[in-house]
Amino acid sequence: MPAKSAAAPAADAPSRAPGSGESQVQRALKKLGLVRDIDFALYLPMRYEDETRVVRLVDTRDGDTVQVEGVVTECEVVFRPRRQLIATLDDGSDTVQLRFFNFYPSQQKQLAPGARVRVRGEVKGGFVGRTIMHPTVKAAGTPLPLALTPIYSTIAGLAQPILRRAVQAGLARAPLHAIVPNPMMPQGAWGLREALSFLHYPAPDVAVATLEDHSHPAWQRLKAEELLAQQLSQLQARRERAAQRAPALRAPVDAGSLHAQLLGVLPFQPTGAQQRADREIAIDLARTQPMHRLLQGDVGSGKTLVAALAAARCIDAGFQCALMAPTEILASQHFGKLVGWLDPLLAARGLRVAWLTGSQKKKEREAMEAIVESGEAALVVGTHAVISEKVRFRRLALAIVDEQHRFGVAQRLALRGKAEGELEPHLLMMSATPIPRTLAMSYYADLDVSTLDELPPGRTPVVTKLVAEHRRDEVIERIRGQLAQGRQVYWVCPLIEESEAVDLRNATATRDELAEHLGDAVRVGLLHSRMPTAEKQAVMADFTAGTLHVLVSTTVIEVGVDVPNASLMVIEHAERFGLSQLHQLRGRVGRGAAASACVLLYATGDSGRVGEAARARLKAMVETGDGFEIARRDLEIRGPGEFLGARQSGAPLLRFADLSTDLLLLDWARELAPRLLDRHPELARQHVDRWLGTKAEYLKA
Ligand code: ADP
Ligand code: MG
Questions:
Q1: Superfamily of domain covering 462-626
Q2: Pocket of ligand 1, candidates 276, 294, 299, 305: which has the most ligand atoms within 8 Å of its Cβ, to mutate?
Q3: Which of 178, 437, 517, 611, by CA, is between 20 and 30 Å from 540?
Q4: Per-residue pLDDT tens for 33-45?
C-alpha cells in the first residue's frame, strides 16, 4: 500500500491526542524501547528493500522483487472471480499485469491509462504473462534513493514511514562519539557513527546477506560494543555481590550429619551429575559471599535430591532453609518426597518441617510462623507465602526456589531481606527448562550454573506420536491396551487462557467421554486448577496409589508429579501448547521401567492446517527427547525475549552479537572489561549507560 508520507506527522514533534499526555506514536515507540536518541540509533533494520534501481521487465524472473517504470495501457475493475483492480503496465521491453484486491479510488486514479508510474513488488509468472500483486505505486521519474531502504520491525499503531523518520532523527542527534578510545577497540573496527549510518542506509552494492546475518564488518563495531557493555555490567554485578556477606555453611559431613544420613536412607545412588552439583553447591555455601546459583536439568534429572542435599548441609551448619515452588500443588507434590526423607531425620534432632501456603487456615498458619520464628522449623516449605512479610526466620541461610522462571525479580529481592541483620541468604534456583548455555551466560548477569546432564538409570525413552484429532478412537484403543497391562494414563486438556470455566467444562466433558468409552471397571479422575487444594491433593493421592487409572487434567500436572506406573501421556490440542510445556508434560511418563509413549493429538482448525510455529513445535517433540535440544529449538522458534518469559523481558539480552559465532569478540570484551572498570571507571559507566540505559538496574536483582 502506498504510504501517505506527506500526511505523517514529524517523528520529533508527534501529534498529541487531545487530553492525553503522550501521543499514540510515542506510546508505540516506548513499547519498542525507543526513548533516548541512542535507542533509536541502535534500532537497526530487520531487512532492506532495494529502491535504488529500475529494471527492464524482460530482465526479470519469476519471484524477483523489482522496481519497474512504464506507461499504464489499460486499467479496469473486474468482478469475477472477485472484485479486483487490474492494470497493465508497458515499460517498452514487455508488459506486466498489476492486480489489487483491496484498493482505493485514489489508486485507480493513479493508474489511469496513459499515466507514467513506477511500481515495486514481486513478479510472478512469465509464461502467460507477468503479474505483480499489490505493488507499491509512485509517479515515474521521482529521484531514486542512493542507499537501500531500511525496513524496521514495528508494531500496530506505528507505520513504517513514521518509525523510519523517527530512527533517522534519532540517528542524527545521538551522541555517537567514541567512549572507549579507538585503540582499545578490536583491530579494524569501524567508527560507531560510520557503522550505524551504513547499517541504516547501506550502499546498494553491498551483499545484503552479510547485513542480515550480521557478518558484515560494520556489524563488528556494534557487536564489540554490545558485548563490552554486557561484560562490564556483569562484572559490576559480580563485584557488588562480592561485597555482600552470607553465613558460611561449613559443618563437617561426618557419619552423624544430616547430609550423610539422608544419603543413607535414599533408595538409590545419586547420579554422577547429582554428586557434582552437590559438591559445587557445597563450595559456594562454605563461602562468606552469598551463593547465586542456577541448578538446571531436564525433567526427571533429579533436581529435588540436589536441593535436599543442599538443605541438609545448611541444617547441619545450624541454619534454616526455605524451599519454594510457584503453586501449592507443586509445593506439596514436588517436595512431598523430600520431606518424607528428611522429616524423621529432623525429628530425631528435635527439629521440624514447616509448611506455609496461601490457603492455610489462620490458626495453622500462625502455628507454623511461630516455629519458623523460634527456629524449630529447620526446613520451611511452601509457596510465595514463605516470603510474605509476616514470616520471620530465626536463622535463614539458604533459599531454594523451584521453577525460578515463575518467580519475579521482586520476589527474589524479598527473599534477600529474610536473613539475619546485614547478611544475605544463599540462593539456589532450579529450572526444568534448561536455558541454553550461551543464553544463560548472556542473560544472567551474575549467576553460576550447575547442570544435571545425566538422567538416573533405568529410564526408558518415551516414544512420541502425532495423531490427528479425527483419529481419537485409536487413541482410546491405545489407552485400553495400557490399562490392560496394569498401567496408568494421563490425558491433558488444553488451557484456553481466557476462561477457566471453559477449561473446566472441556476437561469434564473429556473425563465423561473417556469414562463412557472405557467402561465401569476403569476409574477416570479429574484434576483442574479451580478445584480446592484438598480435593486436588486427594485426586493426586489416588492416582499415585493406583486406585485411579486415568487422570484427566488441565496443565496443573505440568511439573513435579511423579507416578512411575504411568506409561501413556495423551495431550489434546497439542498444537496449542508451548514447546517447553509439551516437553515438561511428556516428562511425566517414562519414569519407570515400562516402555512409555506420548501421543500428541492435534486439530487443524478452519484452515485445515496447523500453523507454522505449531508445526515446528510438534516436529521438535517427535524428533528429540533431549531437554537441551528442545530448549534450543524453543529459543529458535520464539526468540529470546519470549523464551525467558515476559516478566523478565526488561533485562538486556544480546541483540546483535551471537555468542555461538562471536567468541573472539567475547574474549576481547572479557579481557577489556576489568581493565576498563579499574582504570577508567567513568568511561565504563558511560559505556554501560549508552548501551543498557535504564535496563542496567535489572541486572542487580
Ligand atoms: P526433576 O525435579 O529434576 O524433574 P525429580 O527430582 O522429581 O526430577 O526426580 C525424578 C525422579 O527420579 C524422582 O522419583 C526421584 O526420586 C528419582 N531420582 C532422583 N535421583 C535419582 C537417582 N540418582 N537414581 C534413581 N532415581 C532417582
Ligand atoms: Mg522438579
A1: P-loop containing nucleotide triphosphate hydrolases (3.40.50.300)
A2: 305
A3: 517
A4: 888 999 999 999 9
